[in-house]
């Protein structure tokens, strides 16, 4: 048992990230049933949709699962009340101040983890009373830190200062990546992009294929003035880059982004006009597989790599 498998009562120290438009109950329950920790991505769900996914997830697995809640979204109080009503025991918070909800959730018997991108915010999360921290490097997909610190440098820097369990995220899709993160001081890993390209992911098949087709250099972190996000370089991305040449205001960027741009790309499969959020590790993802097979592959690869390192 390690600190994270003990904390969540799971078999493997692998957490499936709660990604928008990818992490519905089918993916979360599949990962939990296979021995990891599945997370529902509340960021792309209206409150009642989240309730429905929690209820379906409870029917689909008797193992622990959690909900990822980006705190920059509206309806946050309603979402937190639904999580408590439905008896969810694990919540990952991100994109906001951990002090806002941690005590409230913990008073209700919920294990709380906060996602950070720097040592400073890791320490603030620890101070707020969270049970563990996810430190996410610059390589990650989705909303990212502005510091551009890579996972390889972030994990040991956080580990040096942190007293509570540490989960590494950003650029991890294989067992070798998992081993590297744990050698650097992580107790577990959070995997996003690899599970976005799983059979059970609720993302559109076009988007899954775009992940598989992506090579190194095909993603870029942009829109830092709004919320930093790593995107596949498609027509929409190039429109953003063109706008940057004109010294845009924040309002100009918001106007171009519009509404539901991520839904259009990742959920509806518009590869031209949609926002396609994925991590740099997409260049190592070569096929769409069932979530259980992905987890098994990661663990097998991890054990094999561990043996190879021992023999060095």
Which fold name is given in CATH as the topology of the largest domain? TIM Barrel
Alpha plus pi helix count: 14
Give the name of the CATH superfamily of the largest domain: Aldolase class I
What proportion of the residues is helical, as a percent range? 40-55%
Biggest β-sheet description: 8 strands, parallel
Instruction: Tell me the name of the CATH class of the largest domain.
Output: Alpha Beta
What CATH architecture label of the largest domain applies?
Alpha-Beta Barrel
State which percent range the strand residues make up: 15-25%
- The run of helices and strands is HEHEHEHEHEHEEHEHEHHEEHHHH
Low-confidence stretches: none
Tell me the radius of gyration.
18 Å
| First-residue to last-residue Cα separation | 26 Å
Please state the average pLDDT score: 96
In total, the number of strands is 11
What sort of overall outline do the alpha carbons produce when their principal axes are compared?
A: globular
Main attributes of the structure:
alpha/beta; TIM Barrel; 2 domains; 14 helices; 43% helix; globular; Nitronate monooxygenase; monooxygenase; oxidoreductase
Account of the protein in words:
This protein has 312 residues and is an alpha/beta fold. 43% of the residues lie in helices and 15% in strands. It folds into two domains: 3-202 and 283-310, Aldolase class I (TIM Barrel), CATH 3.20.20.70; 216-281, no CATH class. An eight-stranded parallel β-sheet has the order 1-9-8-6-5-4-3-2. It has a three-stranded antiparallel β-sheet with strand order 7-11-10, with no helix packed on it. Strand 2, helix 3 (47-60) and strand 3 (65-70) form a beta-alpha-beta unit. The mean pLDDT is 96. Keywords: Flavoprotein, FMN, Monooxygenase, Oxidoreductase.
């Amino acid at each position: 048992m390690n600190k994270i498998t003990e904390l969540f009562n799971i078999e493997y120290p692998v957490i499936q990230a709660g990604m928008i438009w990818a992490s519905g109950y089918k993916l979360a329950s599949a990962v939990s049933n296979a021995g990891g920790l599945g997370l529902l991505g509340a960021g792309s769900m209206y409150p009642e949709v989240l309730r429905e996914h929690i209820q379906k997830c409870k029917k689909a697995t008797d193992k622990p699962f959690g909900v990822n809640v980006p705190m920059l979204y509206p309806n946050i109080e309603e979402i937190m009340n639904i999580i408590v009503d439905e008896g969810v025991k694990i919540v990952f918070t991100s994109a906001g101040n951990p002090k806002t909800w941690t005590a409230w959730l913990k008073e209700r018997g919920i294990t709380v983890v906060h996602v950070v991108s720097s040592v400073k915010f890791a320490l603030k999360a620890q101070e707020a009373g969270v049970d563990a921290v996810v430190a996410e490097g610059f390589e990650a997909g989705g909303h990212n830190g502005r510091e551009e610190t890579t996972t390889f440098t972030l994990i040991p820097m956080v580990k040096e200062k942190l007293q509570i369990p540490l989960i590494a995220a950003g650029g991890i899709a294989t067992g070798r990546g998992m081993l590297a993160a744990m050698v650097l001081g992580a107790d577990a890993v959070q995997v996003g992009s690899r599970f976005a390209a799983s059979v059970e992911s609720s993302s559109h098949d076009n988007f899954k294929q775009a992940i598989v087709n992506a090579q190194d250099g095909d993603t870029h972190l942009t829109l830092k003035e709004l919320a930093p996000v790593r995107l596949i370089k498609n027509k929409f991305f190039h429109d953003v880059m063109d706008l940057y040449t004109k010294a845009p205001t924040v309002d100009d960027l918001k106007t171009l982004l519009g509404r539901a741009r991520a839904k259009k790309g990742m959920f509806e499969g518009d590869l031209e006009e949609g926002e396609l959020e994925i991590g740099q590790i997409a260049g190592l993802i070569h096929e769409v597989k069932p979530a259980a097979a992905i987890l098994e592959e990661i663990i097998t690869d991890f054990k094999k790599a561990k043996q190879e390192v021992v023999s060095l």
